[in-house]
Every structure is written in C-alpha cells, then in structure tokens.
Amino acid sequence: MTWLWLFKLFAIAVLAVVARLFLSQARSVLRDRLIVLALLTGLVAAVLFPESTSWVATKLGIGRGVDLAFYVAFLLLFFVVAALNARRRDLERSVTVLTREVSMLKARPSESGNEQL
C-alpha cells in the first residue's frame, strides 16, 4: 500500500470521526445536518478522486481544483460561524428570559408573608 492511500484512509477516517461527532453531539436543525453531510461527502469524494475537483472547477470556470476546494472551505467556514452566532443569540435570549423569571419570582412575597431571598 502506498503512502498516498494511507493518507487517503487517514483523511477519510478523520472526516468520519468529525461527521460522527457533529451528528451525535451537535444540536442542529435538519437543514444544517444535511449541509454538513453533503460537504463531508464532497470532501470524501475529493480525497478519493482528486482529479474530480479539477474537472468540476474547470466546468465552473474556476481554473484549478485546489482553488475550488479553498472556495468551498471558506463557504463552510462562514456557514459554521453564522450557525454558531445564531445559536449564541438564541442562548442569550434564553438566559435573559430565565433571568427575568427568576427575578420576578424572588420579587414576589411568599404566601406566608415572608419574602424569599
């Protein structure tokens, strides 16, 4: 077995681990999961058939396959950043709502006349 095939097997194994971690631990919507799976499938295809990226890049008018790979990587990076930012905003809203509810519960006098601290 050549070094190239060992590298390809290693790269595919890493992609499989990343996919497994994302799908099992990430709380994401179905759309996000499908996008990540499609991109990971494309990466596996690019690892197995590197000449295919050059062919696709030529058809898209990009020039080289490695340029196409960088463009896709940047798109994936922006997608992940946007998804994480949206998740962060949702968590901030949840914390705000919970904080308000706890504050209002503490502000109400108890039924026995004693206030809770």
Task: Describe the overall structure.
The structure is a single chain. The chain is mostly helical and 117 residues long. The chain has four helices and no strands. It has helices at residues 3-25, 30-48, 50-60, 65-107. Helix 1 packs antiparallel against helix 2, helix 2 (30-48) packs across helix 3 and helix 3 packs across helix 4 (65-107). It is elongated and about 75 Å long. The mean pLDDT is 83.
Fill in the keyword field for this structure.
117 residues; mainly alpha; 82% helix; elongated
Helix vs. strand class: mainly alpha
Q: Summarize the biggest pleated sheet.
A: none
Overall average residue pLDDT: 83
What's the total helix number? 4
Characterize the overall form.
elongated
CA gyration radius, whole angstroms: 24 Å
End-to-end Cα distance: 70 Å
